[in-house]
Write a structure and sequence with these properties.
The structure is a single chain. This protein has about 270 residues and is an alpha/beta fold. About 30% of the residues lie in helices and about 25% in strands. The protein has helices spanning about 50-55, 80-85, 100-105, 120-135, 150-160, 180-195, 205-215, 230-235, 235-245, and strands at about 10-15, 25-35, 35-40, 65-70, 70, 85-90, 165-170, 200-205, 215-220, 225-230, 250, 260-265. Strands 6-7-8-3-9-10 form a six-stranded mixed beta sheet, with helices on both faces. The protein has a four-stranded antiparallel beta sheet with strand order 2-1-4-5, covered by helices on one side. Strands 11-12 form a two-stranded antiparallel ribbon. Strand 4 and strand 5 (about 70) form a beta hairpin. Helix 5 (about 150-160) packs parallel to helix 6 (about 180-195). It is globular. The two termini are about 25 Å apart.
């Protein structure tokens, strides 16, 4: 049975975008459902990061349109106005040496702070809530460069959550993490989607983690969308071979009722 989707949080219509030369995204059509944890999958260079950049106007498309709910994205001013609606965490973010977790998370409040007011009770509460949601409160005074990979990623995620946006875009937040820390970060995302109703789109490479933790998948190849739907609907042997060049078998996990992907040589 197909997934019954809520109205889209973000809609892309006829989007072509790139960085000069041949476009990375070509005439792309996509709707990201609201209130879902959405995994964006595809081989390297297929346009996953470019898609996220277009969704938050870090990259203006050469053609087509992007809507946030019912509002054209280009009707929102870049900077504070847009950052109050969409939070974006890029790959491998960098902070000044010695910056503490608390100082980093507090940066997420900048879109809400006009020039005449630098800090207020609402900012303090938002930071405290974001740190509680990501379980980094006890690390508040620790420098980022002293943390483990998983702790550091949770601190960056807390900064994005402190923006208090309904939409959160994450570009490979578990890259370079060991399996335990990767699961730790994904479990935080599941809680945020479930408890706060946020729309979270996350670029992932691990197919089995995507199958286990996400609600909705977008599979890309060569700048276009090849499939969308639940992990059960999308992750079949034919798609894995066609998009990823992976000869694999897909089995149902009896406990989680999610697909498990096993390379054919190990099936």
């Amino acid at each position: 049975m197909s997934e019954l989707l809520p109205p889209p949080a973000l809609t892309l219509h006829g989007v072509t975008a790139g960085y000069g030369g041949d476009p990375v995204l070509r005439d792309l059509e996509l709707a990201l459902p609201a209130g879902r944890l959405i995994g964006i999958l595809g081989p390297n260079g297929c346009g996953k990061s470019t898609l996220l950049r277009v969704c938050c106007r870090l990259l203006v498309p050469d053609a087509g349109s992007v809507r946030l709910g019912g509002t054209p994205l280009d009707a929102l001013r870049r900077g504070r106005e847009l950052a109050r609606r969409i939070a974006m965490l890029p790959q491998n973010p960098v902070a000044p040496v010695g910056m503490t977790v608390l100082d980093l998370v507090a940066r997420g409040r900048q879109p809400h702070q006009p020039w005449y007011r630098q800090w207020g009770p609402g900012d303090e509460q938002a930071v405290a809530d974001a740190m509680a949601d990501t379980q980094v409160g006890e690390l508040a005074d620790r420098p980022l460069d002293e943390l483990s990979g998983g702790q550091r990623q949770r601190a960056w995620l807390a900064m994005a959550l402190a923006q208090q946006t309904d939409v959160v875009l994450l570009d490979e937040p578990i890259a370079h993490l060991d399996p335990a820390h990767a699961v730790e970060v994904l479990e935080v995302l599941v809680r945020l989607r479930r408890d706060a109703g946020k729309t979270i789109a996350v670029v992932l490479h691990d197919l089995n983690l995507a199958a286990r933790f996400t609600d909705h998948l977008v599979v890309m190849r060569s700048g276009s969308v090849q499939a969308t739907g639940t992990p059960e609907e999308v992750l079949g042997a034919h798609l894995l071979a066609d998009v990823f060049g992976l000869d694999a078998r897909v089995f149902p996990d009896p406990e989680w009722n999610r697909p498990v992907i096993v390379p054919a040589s190990h099936a």
